[in-house]
Amino acid sequence: MGASRDDKSRNPRQSESGAVSIRDVAKRAGVSIASVSRALNSGSGSVSKATQEKVAAAAQALNYRPNQAGRALRSQSTNTFALINSNIQNNFYAAIAWELERLLSAEKSALLVYTSNEDAETQDRCIEDIRSRQVSGVFFLCAVDSPGLTTLTKNDPVVFINRRLQSCPEISFVGIDDEAAARAQMRSGARRDLRNIAIIHGPESSDTSARRLRGMLDAARDAGANIAPNAIKEARLSMESGYDCAGPLLDDKNLDAIFCGNDQIAYGVYRRCLERGIAVPDQLRIYGFDDNPMNEWLAPWLNTVRVPHVELARTAVEQMQTLTGNGAAREILLPYELIQRA
Amino acid sequence: MGASRDDKSRNPRQSESGAVSIRDVAKRAGVSIASVSRALNSGSGSVSKATQEKVAAAAQALNYRPNQAGRALRSQSTNTFALINSNIQNNFYAAIAWELERLLSAEKSALLVYTSNEDAETQDRCIEDIRSRQVSGVFFLCAVDSPGLTTLTKNDPVVFINRRLQSCPEISFVGIDDEAAARAQMRSGARRDLRNIAIIHGPESSDTSARRLRGMLDAARDAGANIAPNAIKEARLSMESGYDCAGPLLDDKNLDAIFCGNDQIAYGVYRRCLERGIAVPDQLRIYGFDDNPMNEWLAPWLNTVRVPHVELARTAVEQMQTLTGNGAAREILLPYELIQRA
DNA sequence: AATCATATTGGAAACGTTTACAATTGCGAG
DNA sequence: CTCGCAATTGTAAACGTTTCCAATATGATT
């Protein structure tokens, strides 16, 4: 039976598609495909040492690699995870993505990377695609609210990194206590006697940005800092937006410091200062948030809050493993660190 | 037959696995799975308008997404590409990755991202994984020589971006004329009368770095520039390595400029200058290569060569499409631009 | 009204795995 | 020598698609 099937559907040497399948290995090793599968996965049911060796030799000789599509179809598990990133150009996010990839590849898993650009519609397109690819889990690096998210979180393990969504309180989250960190940073500024300050915060629609703003305002009030009525501005989380917002603020010659919702915004502020001939940090201090790994090299003028991106990624992967093992969703806050460079 | 099969293997409402399959759609629409497939793909063989609508409605109602594993298994084509990046933390590379993702997602394809860290063994592990995932094509962003590469290039469409390999002359390449660009940059430095110069080039094992070095030396000789015997150093393509190499060079107080193999190296040099109290660009000019998109914001002191990363990605995707359509491998050089900031 | 061409449809096979189940083997004990 | 048990192996079904082929419905032409 099996033989006749083989005879008519297989070429003598190898499959016509060019790819070598488990069948080819079985034939060469002189065993059944079931044995090949068992030998290679050494999972359910054991094989004799002789078979094990024959199969290994045949697989080696044919340069066989199991077809993941077949495996995924049968076992309902692609070893594939997805990352939806808001903006891979932000080096801080890229560093997290890189760490995720590193950790996952150590577990024989691969990472599909998507970019949402903080846009709900784009994010939903990514989610659509992900849902059809039967991924094992999805990481969000700065998620935004979008209709498709509900369906996804219902069916797949999801971990939010760095930003959670109020609309998804039951979803795992790994980040820092943004409000406390912002408060601590503002207090540290107050201790340096930076009295006249401005704030350029991220979109209030972002939970993270909102918390950071709350913390800043809270601590500023406590410290009795001076914030002019129009010295609190909302920006998008980009350099351009920081640049735009900084313009009017810099007219105030008494300004001591600008506190920014993240480092990208701070970069924009910096450039505006350069153009205006304002010396940083001598005339004006700039505070950011995240601590982009490049700061150490390129932004010695930047004070910021270090979000531990390596640990963030590690913890996110651990939590993902918990979820795929049917563990409970958790909210995990990691320690942050104030970085005062100038 | 079909009915009895359905009766015993399907729940009345939906598949027990939670995922809705083409069968569920077919049942709800009251047509065969073949018709559903045809209606949704509108490919081989047409369907009547009535069926089309019934299927669309059912798919919509059940929130159906075709299972890519099944599709891939049958049609031997995952709409998935892989990118092996040498170092995603380099913003210049991240920008290319981002652009690739953007272009591919517009074609309903996804991108698996790997990081090789310029390490042959790591790259081979990535290639192993890729080979088992039946990807439609592989992009390399700065490939290194490795044993697995030969097998891969034999079986899958491959496009090299930014760096080619002498060992793979038949593989498509998209980049710039590095030697000419380096020559032009060095000449532009000579015209500014930067006579005493040093060079920190990338690894000579990298074709790109070697070409850049050749161009620099060539133009420096023509211009009669002064290069002290120990003022040509080989670095890895990292900020740390640039920092290390810069140390000894900066002892020469007459130095006018340092030309670096890429921007990362230049960042390391910059930091060393800061620490030594050397004013950039007043006392020393720094030249890099690539033009990291963040330079505009953070490195106004950096002269560099802009490699058109958006066009690079676009051209790479186009060439990949050519390859998958059985077109010929090509070597494509795009125009570069000298950026003189300081 | 009967016939034929054409447009649609459904049945079934195939893609490459994993795994439940049955069959076979080897081997020691009765 | 036979029996039974454990270890190993093979057979076949199933995962969700796409697509070939045959069957049916539709509509036009005689």
3D architecture notes:
The structure is a homodimer. By secondary structure, chain A is of the alpha/beta class. Chain A has three domains: about 1-65, 434 Repressor (Amino-terminal Domain), CATH 1.10.260.40; about 80-175 and about 310-335, 3-Layer(aba) Sandwich (Rossmann fold), CATH 3.40.50.2300; about 180-305, 3-Layer(aba) Sandwich (Rossmann fold), CATH 3.40.50. Chain A has 14 helices and twelve strands. The first copy, chain A, has helices spanning about 1-10, 20-30, 35-40, 50-60, 70-75, 90-105, 120-130, 145-155, 180-190, 205-225, 240-250, 265-275, 295-300, 310-325; strands at about 80-85, 110-115, 135-140, 160, 170-175, 195-200, 230-235, 255-260, 285, 300-305, 330-335, 335-340. A six-stranded parallel beta sheet of chain A has the order 2-1-3-4-5-11, with helices on both faces. In chain A, strands 7-6-8-9-10-12 form a six-stranded mixed beta sheet, sandwiched between helices. In chain A, helix 2 packs across helix 3 and helix 11 (about 240-250) crosses helix 12 (about 265-275). The N and C termini of chain A lie far apart (about 80 Å). The interface between A and B is large, with 55 and 55 residues. The structure holds a DNA duplex (30 and 30 nucleotides). Chains A, B: Keywords: DNA-binding, Transcription, Transcription regulation. Chains A, B: It comes from Halocynthiibacter halioticoli. Chains A, B: GO terms for molecular function: DNA-binding transcription factor activity; transcription cis-regulatory region binding. Chains A, B: This is LacI family transcriptional regulator.
